[in-house]
Amino acid sequence: MSAFQESPAWVRVGLVPILQLTLALAVSSLVVLMVGESPIEALKLMVYGATNLEYGGLASTLYYATNFIFTGLAVAVAFHAGLFNIGGEGQAYVAGLGVAIVALTFDSTLNVWLMAPMIIVISALFGAVWGVIPGYLQAKRGSHIVVTTIMFNFIAAAVMGYALVEIIAPMGGNSTDSRYFAATSVFPKLNEIWPDIPSSLLNPTLLIALITAWLVWVLIWRTRLGYAIRVVGQNPKAAEYAGINVARIIIITMAISGALAGMMAINEVYGAQSRLILNFTNGFGFIGIAVALMGRNHPVGVILASILFGALYQGGTELQFDMPSLNPELIMVIQGAVIFFTGALDRLVRDPVEKMFMRKSTEEA
Amino acid sequence: MDASVWIFSTLDSSIRLAVPLIFAAMGGIFSERSGIVDIGLEGKMLFAAFVAAATSYATGSAWLGMCAGIMGSVALSMVHGYASINMRGDQVISGLAVNFFAAGMTVTLGHAWFSRGGQTPGLIGDQRFLPIELPGAEWLGDTIPFFGPLYREVISGHNILVYLSFAIVGVTWWVLFKTRFGLRLRAVGEEPNAVDTAGISVAWMRYRAIAFTGVFCGLAGAYYSTAQNAAFGKNMTAGQGYIALAAVIFGKWRPKTALFACLLFGFLSALETRMQGVAIPGIGVLPTQVFSALPYVLTVVLLAGFIGKAVAPKAVGQPYIKER
């Protein structure tokens, strides 16, 4: 496509997503109206709940965003290879098991400086294993990644149900969660580092997430592997002609994607909760899909979308205190609407808006 | 005697657990045969379950609840259709959005209307579908050995939706393979170009197909909240929509084989509760999670081509772009 046929970048990555988000919020507002509350009041409360400094609202927003950066990057990387990884939930869940096993085994002997690197590696490794199997099955056996990753989410839930009872419970804690990891071996929360700020679950994992996002950017746009991934995503047949081993790229991409999703466990299991809890992934793996869609599969977009979703999450949780008739699950509605308008109904806004700006630029030319 | 009681009651609960899968799987077959991937089966069932329970509670009639549930489910189908047929959007993403939307809507509305943390109030009397005693069940059960008790314990004593689900398998088979509509519907999922060339509207065919999907998922949802249980509970479909999808694949997009897949999956989840702490000779006690994971594992193994080949309709998942 030649340059003059495209609409300006700020329209494609700025205006269109903002309009789509506005539509999603408009639909969600209708739901708030159905419940009999004022959408404007609700929005105000959510914004305040997500951004205030005195009760740790902003810190909690960033804590949630940390999870979404990992799962969003996982979906985005797979998207670049044309793969739709819906398995982030399972990959993160299994990674949480790895994190817990390592932390429970070594937490009395290792301090945080030695423990953290191990946790990072093990979370990525466990996630990668759970991602690579569907990748392998797609590449070599022709099964569809969407269906396999869905199935693997449920298999992960069964595996975890078993592992919690058989592996984690004997290591301390009860059958649905582990004991707390020793305080000397886990990340301190931000408010433990700086006692002046209000308490929240925010911890140094946010930094790891940001570094990971930068690494993903380097991988996708600055390396040979990233180039191969993008070619496979654009046109697998052309990739094959160009001498790229498509099956290999698919497998590697799914390993990376799974590893990224798995790293969510660093924040949740190691950093925030400091123990393994049943269902700790809490649907965050699925939110990664909305985050990647909104962020247009670019690390910077993923970070921004993660903060937005972090704010929705934190704001939604706060909302229930001031508007008891609204349930925090409202954010599932918002999330669904965001996925719908930025993903499935992308053309609805994009086509007319981009056309409008394209006409303008040709008139000028 | 003890063994046959155990077998009959396990079969009985297998059927009860398979029914929503059967409805949803038949719905999934209609959708996928027409070329539309539908991972929103779960969300449609959940939404229908809520609407059915709420309506049934408000009107006092399970039948009205069922109709409302069907309407809710069909509405979601149409939204999915608009995104994937008119807007040529990604069908998987659209299906996911439906699932999120349903999960959020049901709890949000339920919480606001009934303030029971997303649950609906308990349904009583005509607000539910109650078991039906088939003619002669008692008498046959007492007089004829084996078949009598089988008839009394397993076949009789279900609610009307259970019998309807089995009838729907026949209807699905007949519509798909014995009517002109079915022939065209299957063609749309394989070669939409050819169907278009023959002067039949691809979009209209697909809309009608997913309308069936909506109706069947509506029945599945109504079954959950007004027949199997006596209220709607948060996330009560608990992933069964995905199991139904697995059954569609496992049944290779055919009604009869999908029925057997549903019954198998129903049997597995019946075993899940029954095999707790029960030792199998030569194997020992199996973790219950084995039974819950088995449908998914089997589907993965099937998709990988290790137990036969699962060939999806050729055009499934691809938006149709009219060339002219």
**Rg over CA atoms of chain B:** 20 Å
Largest sheet of chain B: 2 strands, antiparallel
The name of the CATH architecture of chain A is Orthogonal Bundle
What integer value in Å does the Rg of chain A equal?
21 Å
Identify the most extensive interface between protein chains.
A-B, 48 and 50 residues
Subcellular location (chain B): Cell inner membrane
Keywords (chain B): Cell membrane, Membrane, Transmembrane, Transmembrane helix
Transmembrane segments (chain B): 6-27, 63-85, 92-114, 160-177, 209-226, 232-250, 257-273, 293-312
Organism (chain B): Pelagibaculum spongiae
Can you characterise this structure?
The complex is a heterodimer of chains A (365) and B (324). Chain A has 365 residues and is an all-alpha fold. In chain A, 74% of the residues lie in helices and 0% in strands. Chain A has a single domain (25-357), classed as ABC transporter involved in vitamin B12 uptake, BtuC. Chain A has helices at residues 9-35, 39-51, 57-80, 88-106, 112-141, 145-168, 190-193, 205-222, 224-234, 236-241, 246-262, 264-272, 284-294, 299-322, 330-344, 346-364. The longest helix of chain A is centred in the middle third of the chain and has 30 residues, at 112-141. Chain B has one domain (15-303): ABC transporter involved in vitamin B12 uptake, BtuC. Chain B has 13 helices and two strands. Chain B has helices at 2-33, 41-59, 62-86, 91-114, 137-143, 147-155, 160-178, 180-190, 192-197, 202-228, 240-250, 255-274, 288-303, and strands at residues 279-280, 284-285. Chain B has a two-stranded antiparallel sheet. In chain B, a hairpin with a 3-residue loop joins strand 1 (279-280) and strand 2 (284-285). In chain B, helix 1 crosses helix 7, helix 7 (160-178) packs across helix 8 (180-190) and helix 11 packs across helix 13. Chain B starts with a helix and ends in a 21-residue tail after the last helix. The chains are: A mainly alpha (365), B mainly alpha (324). The interface between A and B is large, with 48 and 50 residues. Chain B: InterPro entries: ABC_transp_permease. Chain B: It is found in: Cell inner membrane.
